[in-house]
């Protein structure tokens, strides 16, 4: 009888441990948020779509890309350039939402020296 009791205790313990373990593992998937800060989002977009021409710091100048470190263009104008393109620069209105264009335009303001 005593043996059975100990066995049951052990079984319960092991069961409890494995339960809490799997709970921790399945927590993560629900923490995704769509309301990320615009600056962080803008940086990500810039690194995805813009570095090929403008470079990581805005001064690479591939395909005659404007040096964003010296650009004095206000953010509204940048939104316009990014949306509709200009000369060698491709328009992004098909690729990015208005919000994303705004976020990346704001990010380019931070490249200024
Ligand atoms: C295919 C290469 C290319 C890509 C990709 C590109 N650009 Fe450009 N960008 C250019 C060129 C070339 C110019 C200069 C256009 C001109 O001379 O009128 C320019 C100009 C600009 C300007 C205007 C600067 C000023 O002061 O006149 C901004 C702002 C800008 N780009 C932002 C971006 C952002 C943000 C992205 C990513 C979403 C991006 N560009 C992607 C090539 C590119």
Describe this structure in words.
It is elongated, with a radius of gyration of 26 Å. The chain is mainly α. It has a domain at 38-109: Cytochrome c-like domain (Cytochrome Bc1 Complex, Chain D, domain 2, Orthogonal Bundle). Helices cover 55% and strands 0% of the residues. The protein has helices at 2-25, 38-49, 51-54, 75-84, 98-109. Heme C is lined by residues 46, 49-50, 52-54, 63-66, 71, 73, 78, 81-82, 86-90, 92, 104, 108.
Structural class: mainly alpha
How far apart, in Å, are the first and last alpha carbons? Answer: 80 Å
Q: Give the CATH superfamily of the domain at 38-109.
A: Cytochrome c-like domain
CATH topology of the domain at 38-109: Cytochrome Bc1 Complex, Chain D, domain 2
The number of strands is: 0
Strand content: under 5%
Q: Which ions, cofactors or small ligands are bound in this entry?
A: heme C
Q: Characterize the main sheet.
A: none
Count the DSSP helices.
5
> So what's the oligomer here?
single chain
Shape, per Cα inertia axes: elongated
Sketch the topology as an H/E string, one letter per element.
Answer: HHHHH
**Which CATH first-tier class of the domain at 38-109 would you pick?**
Mainly Alpha
Radius of gyration over alpha carbons? 26 Å
Look at the structure and give the mean pLDDT: 81
**Helical fraction:** 40-55%
Unreliable stretches: 20-33
Question: Which CATH-level-2 architecture of the domain at 38-109?
Answer: Orthogonal Bundle
């Amino acid at each position: 009888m005593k043996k059975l009791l100990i066995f049951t205790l052990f079984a319960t313990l092991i069961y409890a441990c494995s339960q809490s373990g799997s709970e921790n593992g399945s927590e993560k998937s629900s923490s995704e948020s769509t309301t990320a800060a615009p600056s962080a989002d803008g940086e990500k977009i810039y690194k995805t779509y813009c570095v090929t021409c403008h470079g990581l710091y805005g001064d690479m100048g591939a395909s005659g890309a404007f040096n964003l470190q010296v650009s004095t263009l206000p953010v509204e104008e940048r939104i316009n350039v990014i949306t509709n393109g200009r000369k060698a620069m491709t328009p992004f209105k098909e690729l990015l939402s208005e919000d994303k264009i705004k976020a990346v335009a704001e990010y380019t303001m931070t490249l200024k020296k």
